[in-house]
Every structure is written in structure tokens, then in C-alpha cells.
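Sanity check

After download, print the first record. It should look like this:
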Amino acid sequence: MAEEQIVDTSSEVAEQTLSNVKTWLPEWVVPYWDKLQDQPLLLMLIVLALGYVLAKLIQWTFKKVAGVLTAKTKNSYDDRIIGILSKPIFAIIFFGSLLFAIEAYQFASDTDTTLKRLVVTILIMSLMATVWKGAKIVLEALSNNRNHFTFVEERTIPLLNIVTQLLTVGLAIYFIILLWGKDPTAWLASAGVMGIALGFAAKDTLSNLFAGFFIVADSPYKLGDYIVLDSGERGMVSHVGIRSTSLMTRDNVEVTVPNSVMGNAKIVNESGGPSEKTRIRLPVGVAYETDLELAVKALQEEAEKNEMVLNYPEPKVRAKLFGPSSVDFQLQFWIDKPELRGRILHNMILAIHKRFREEGIEIPYSKQDLYIKKVEDELS
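Expected C-alpha cells:
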């Protein structure tokens, strides 16, 4: 009963406010308003024209004053926020003049109320769109100030942005329902039943949605990381969304993977350590007759000569195994970024092959000898 009384009271207040727009006028304007009420169309046009001019004037003044203040800052976030805020300032003033124009034309009671509710509904939707655009910019600005806002980071921006959008839409719908004199509790009950039905019908979509929230919160990877999936896909993370994650492969092909798959996959994040440096292990086999010290020296020097191989940590050569036809070494060296792996391996293999030919070092290959023994036919 208490909730119904609150809803009824809110609806009555909204209806009375819309029906008494004239009371918002300054006292010195009321006499001119009353004189022009005999010509409602002219009064409506005058109100619309004055409202548009006033809205543009205040919008221009806001941009100029705010622009002077933000010119002293080094970042561009405040400039973008001002550009977004100038639109709702214009919308509030202009839509307010629309309410006065509707009042001036003296429509029938039902038509007057419906038109005013429609104008306020459009205004609420316009403000909702502004909050959508401004929230992301504010979150980006807060993420750059990690000393005071540690929770707002690049990886949590999508999650916080989605939460902000959901809250904005929910509040906008709630106020619109109240504006039109409806009981929101009945709508919420219907939405609950509909939500259960949609949950069963779109369980895969919801699975991707919840997995996306957990990925953003847990952060096994972030934008720009180079990852390898257990299914074989390898690439740089180009997009982390609520429904899916996109990888840009070395073939410049974007692979989109549902978050429900990403949440259950084994992911190797090659950029997830203290730095993006990655160690490469290149196996090399030499013949048993080879001077092993010479082979080690050749491998070490070729790694040190490559400009894309890091000097620190320094390259190393390790003997690993007496193989079936070779002594197996492993050349270990570090590179700046994991996406350079293929190119550096190509260069190193060519350089080592050329150096081994110059030094007379044999790289054996697997071979088998077949001996045929002639057996005379004892029966002949």
C-alpha cells in the first residue's frame, strides 16, 4: 500500500507540474503572456523562437567559458566532456521552451498533457544518451589517475561502462513510467517473468555475458596482450567485449572467440609476465664428428650478431641430448615482443645454416642403412 501511495503521489506531482508550466514564468513575463494569449499560434511561435535563441546563446557561452578553463589542462578529456555537456544544456532549455509553447497554444486538456509527457520523455532519452557517451570518457580519465582511483583501470572500463549504461537505462525507464502515470511494480513483475523466459531461450548468450564479466574482473589478458589458446589460435588481443574476445593473428585476420569458450580454455599469455620479453628455444643438432666447442661458439656468435635478439638477458647455448644421429643443442635467446617470434626464428635459422656451412659443421638428418645378405638356395 505504501509503494502504491508513493507511485500515485509521484504521478500526481508530475501531472500537476506539467499542467502548470505557466507558474514557472518570471513575474515580469506574466503580463505579456496574458496579453498574447488571445493569439495562441503567435505566442507559441514567439516562445519557440526565443527558446531556441536562448538555448543557443547559453550553449555558446558555456563552451566559451569552459573552453577558457580547460585550455590550461594538458589532457583532452575535459574538452570532450564539455562537447558532450553542451548538447544537454541546449536540449533542456529548448525542450523547456517546447513545454511553454504547448501551454501557450491552449490545447485540449488530454492533448496538452500527452504532448507535454511526450516532450519530457524525449528529453529523458536525450539525457540518457548523453550519460552513455560521457560515462566512458569519465572512466577513461579516471583510469589515467591511478593514484586516486585504483579500481578504474583499462581492463575494468568495459565492465564499469556496462554497469553505468544498465543503471542509466533502468532509471530512465523508471522515470518515464512514472511520467505516464503507470505503476512500475507491475512492469517490474512482468519483466521478471519475461527475464526467466529469456534466460532459458538465450542461455548461450547469457553464458557469454557472465563469462565476459568474469574475464574483465579476473583479467587473464588485456588489450594488446599476445595469447595462445589450447585450440591453437595465436594472436594479439584486439577487443575484449562482454560477449566475445577478438584476436588479431599474424595473418592480419581477426578471430572472434565467445567468452564462454575463453572462460574454459587454457590460455598462455605470452605478454603476461613482468615484461613483454619472451625467450625462444631453438633446437639445433650437429653430427657426432663435429668439434662441439666450435659449434657452441658459432651458435653464440650468430645470436649475438642478430639486432633483434636482446643482449640482456644474454643468449645461451646448452647441450641437451645425445640423439640417435646427432648431439642436440638448444640456443636460448630473448626478444622484445612475442609477435616477433616468427621473423626472428626465420633469420636465425638462415644465419646458422650459412655459418655451419662456412665452418664445415654438419647438420645430420635421420637416415638408415640397409644391408642385403645373399642367401644361396641350398636346395638347388
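If your output differs, re-run the checksum step. Summary of this record's structure: Residues 109-143 form the longest helix (35 residues).
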